[in-house]
Amino acid sequence: MKTKILIILLLLLLILSNGYWIYSNIDNSVTQSYHNHVTWEFANKIKANAMFGNFYIQRVSKDSALAIMNNIYGPDNVFEKDNCINTIWINLIIEDGFVKEIEIDENVKEWAK
Question: Chain centroid to CA 84: how far?
Answer without folding.
Answer: 22
